[in-house]
Amino acid sequence: MYKYIIRRILVFIPMLIVLSMIVFGLAKAAPGDPFTGRMLDPNIDPEVYEQQREALGLNDPIPVQYVNWATRIVKGDFGESMYYKGRSVASLVWERLPNTLYLGLFSLAITLIVAIPIGIYSARNPYSMFDYGATTFGFFGLAVPNFFFGLVAIYFFAIKLGWFPSQGTITGTDITGFQEFLDRIHHMVLPGITLGLAGTASYMRYMRSEVLDVLGSDYIRTAKAKGMSERNVLYKHTLRNAIIPIITLMGFEFGALLSGAIITEQVFSYPGLGTLFINSITNRDYPVIMAITLLLGVTILIGNLLADIFYSIVDPRIRYD
Amino acid sequence: MNQVPLLSVHDLKTYFYLEQNRIAKAVDGVSFTVSPGETVAIVGESGSGKSITALSIMKLIEKPGKIVEGSIHLEEKVISSLSSKQMTKLRGNEIAMVFQEPMTALNPVYTVGNQITEMIRKHRKLDKKQAQIEAINLLKIVGISRAEDVVNDYPHQLSGGMRQRVMIAMAISCNPKLLIADEPTTALDVTIQAQILDLMVEMKERYHMALLLITHDLGIVSEYADRVVVMYGGQVVEEAPTKQLLRTTKHPYTKGLLESLPNLKEDVDRLGTIKGTVPPAYALPNGCRFYDRCPLAMEKCKEANPELYQVNTSHTVRCYLHEKEEIE
User: Fold this and answer.
1) Tell me, what's the pLDDT at A47?
2) Residues A72 and A160 both lie in one domain
3) Which residues of chain B make contact with A221, given a CB cutoff of 8 A?
4) pLDDT per residue as tens digits for the range A5-57
5) Into how many domains does chain A fold?
6) Which residues of chain A does B87 touch, with a Cβ-Cβ cutoff of 8 Å?
7) Distance between first and last Cα of chain A
8) Residue B209: what pLDDT?
9) Which one-letter DSSP state was computed for residue A163?
């Protein structure tokens, strides 16, 4: 078990290196360097720029530049933003990351709370009115684009009904403690539901088909033949088997929550990583773009790592491969 | 058979309501009894309704299936009218079942011990520790060496024969009165089959259980069963004590089944076959259900399905050829 986890973590390292190379390569492939578009001042000798380039190591061979960059990253130095003068990339990202993380977790919580019970109930009553309703909702959730659903939600629930705020993370700075917590949740409701819509639909569909599949299996019949109660059959024998594929799905979803937030955050003007990312692209703020891309990649890797670990806990057949 | 039967099934009808308003009459008026300590075999091809009969006794018929008629008694209990909660107290405790596929009949994510103890704890009200000791003990009884280790193994770590032994250990764990074995050896290697069957008979004697053995293998039947119920198209077509059935076979279907078995005494080039297949349960003919495949079919057979004729005190057969032999 521990061996498996350690081996899995070791595999994580080369993947991380390859990921960083891709991110670095993409940034290098983009035309220009930090001085492009700034050589307008005729009073500055082009020689000075050249000296600066030399000093910044921009004339070094690409592999050397990569190693230097990677070494700084390992030390936690992501450089400075080109757009927000004098601000380190790390501080910008750290400032936004919690907002996105809260939104992601909140959305994931809603997704699971809604999708799993509905999926189970649908599977236990297949082809019922409820099941057809859930299926319809599922197709709706998968078909409607995030941004469109977000806009409609703002129109009805924020503007027409006034139940929820349409943007931001918090009303004012004068509230603290539990009040602040509630206010943050209040702000997260609409973007959280929007972000989780597609996920809810797909988890629900997966859960339904998995539970349905497991309920028809021989070992469930055995459990019933042993005289196990319906509760026991469902919660002990069915769910643990049905949840295995869901864990894999959650591994992917973990990364997708952060990247998926890019559009949703934009729609709700939610000050998270997504809005920062979009702004950096518009401003050609390469260090920030690189840092966020790397971070998204790492979350996807971590998501998969966690999925693999949980997978091996839930399914004993995985442990001794 | 003067004893009070342990299990008595009377006029059982289990239908499946399929799409397009089709009704599959999987079990269509089956009656038989099992006495205490007796081994009764239900024999028939795939699709003859033998497994559905077994599942009906356990009341484990899933939608769209339904027991539409008939009564099932276990001693004085009327199983057919028990609530689903009362059934959970009876299943595993008074009637236990061993299934065909040991590879898939155990839950892959729980240890063997866990799956045995949960049953012991439910029916016998033992605590965790006692149940664990009992589980190890049961595994030893069914012939598993290193039972102390196997109890902590997962099903995928065991061979098919071992898993079937585990299933049997589970089945006997609460000392049931009746053990239903649904093709318990079909999925096993031939060398293991006899071991498992011998084990079941040994357990039957040790725990004074009755055994309802469901199989398509008449070879097994001749060796292990006291009495045979032959099923075809959801109905009983012949029933008799094993020896009598083998010696004075009446029904053409039973004869066909026997001819398809290899025989050491006679030298034949080719084993007999029964042409055709069992009619689908949703499209049963009006006449005799074996009419299309019967080498001795008569005009009469096409028109109406024969009754079960009692040809002597312990032998019944559903065939017009033996109508006149009926005793009062």
Assistant:
1) 80
2) no
3) 60, 99, 105
4) 888 888 888 988 999 999 889 888 877 666 665 556 667 777 877 887 787 77
5) 2
6) 227
7) 10
8) 93
9) -
Taking the C-alpha atoms of residue A225 and residue A236, their distance in angstroms, rounded to an integer, is 15
Class of domain B7-94+176-325: alpha beta
- From the list B83, B180, B93, the residue with the least C-alpha distance to A226 is B93
Confirm whether A67 is domain-assigned: yes
DSSP state for residue B62 in the 8-state scheme: P
Terminal-to-terminal C-alpha distance of chain B: 17
pLDDT for position A87: 86
Asked whether the beta carbons of residue A317 and residue B156 sit closer than 8 angstroms, the reply is: yes
User: Is the minimum CB–CB distance between A217 and chain B shorter than 8 Å?
Assistant: yes
B3 compared with B184, residue with greater pLDDT: B184
ipTM, two decimals = 0.87
Which residues in chain B are closer than 8 Å to A237, comparing Cβ atoms? 107, 110
Kindly report the backbone phi and psi dihedral angles of residue B82, in degrees, each rounded to the nearest multiple of 5, phi listed first. -80, 150
What does the pLDDT read at residue A33?
A: 65
Residues A255, A171, single domain; the answer is: yes
Distances (CA, A) of B199 to B54, B167, B169, B186, B194: 21, 12, 10, 15, 8
Query: How far is residue B220's CA from residue B225's CA, in Å, rounded to a whole number?
Result: 8
Q: Is there a single domain that holds both residue A58 and residue A147? A: no
Instruction: Give B82-121 pLDDT, tens digit per residue.
Output: 998 999 999 999 999 999 888 899 999 999 999 999 999 9
- Nearest CB to B91: which of A217, A219, A227? A227
Q: Rounded to whole angstroms, how far apart are CA atoms A82 and A84?
A: 6
On whether residue A278 sits in a domain, the answer given is: yes
Residue A68 at interface with chain B, using a CB cutoff of 8 Å? no
Q: Is residue A224 part of a domain?
A: yes
Phi, psi for A76 (deg, rounded to 5): 90, 10
Does A235 contact B at CB distance below 8 Å? no
Do residues A67 and A100 both lie within one domain? no
The reply to whether residue A218 touches residue B154, judged by beta carbons under 8 angstroms, is: no
CA atoms in the 13 A half-sphere facing the CB of B110: 20
List b or e across B217-236, with b for residues whose CB sees 16 or more CB atoms inside 10 angstroms.
bbebbbebbbbbbbbbbbbb
pLDDT at A158: 86
Between B267 and B256, where is the model more confident? B256
pLDDT(B1) > 50: no
Same domain, A187 and A305: yes
Question: Measured between alpha carbons, how far is A194 from A262 in angstroms, rounded to an integer?
Answer: 12
A319 vs B317, residue with greater confidence: B317
Could you list the residue range(s) of the whole structural domain that residue A220 is in? Answer: 92-319
In a domain, A85, yes or no: no
Q: Same domain, yes or no, for A169 and A311?
A: yes
Q: Which residue ranges of chain A lie beneath pLDDT 50?
A: none
